[in-house]
Design brief:
Strand content: under 5%
CATH superfamily of the largest domain: AhpD-like
Number of domains: 2
Radius of gyration: 15 Å
Distance between the termini: 41 Å
Number of strands: 0
Shape: globular
CATH architecture of the largest domain: Up-down Bundle
Largest sheet: none
Length: 125
């Protein structure tokens, strides 16, 4: 593997989130550039680049976790977009959100649906 963790992470982030992911990293440049680098290197260069799960599955797992957390709306919106970008369907995402109602409660699921609605409106118009 000749690519650095940073280069590998940037490529994976672009594959999943396109410009949206890079915008998140860019928003950290002036105040916490190291945090942006850690996200790229560890999150995307190491974890998202591991074998064993495809990107669609990784994004669906991330959406489930963020819905269950209930406190990460901006990150949820980025990963909802990412899940759609790598082949997840709206129906699959809705089922993930409904599943999280069982474990995280209806408020978390309702917030997840609201985030999905916003993402879909942005994508379609």
């Amino acid at each position: 593997m000749n690519q650095s963790r940073f280069e590998r992470g940037k490529a994976r982030l672009a594959e999943i989130d396109g410009e949206a992911g890079q915008a998140v990293i860019a928003s950290l440049t002036d105040i916490a550039p190291d945090l942006g680098r850690y996200i790229i290197e560890f999150g995307f260069g190491d974890i998202y680049s591991r074998p064993g799960l495809d990107l669609r599955t990784r994004e669906l797992a991330t959406v489930a976790a963020l819905v269950a957390l209930g406190t990460a709306r901006p990150q949820l919106e980025v990963h909802l977009q990412g899940a759609l970008n790598v082949g997840a369907t709206q129906e699959e995402i809705v089922e993930i959100i409904i599943q999280m109602a069982l474990y995280a409660g209806f408020p978390a699921a309702l917030n997840g649906v609201a985030a999905l609605r916003k993402v879909l409106e942005t994508r379609h118009g």
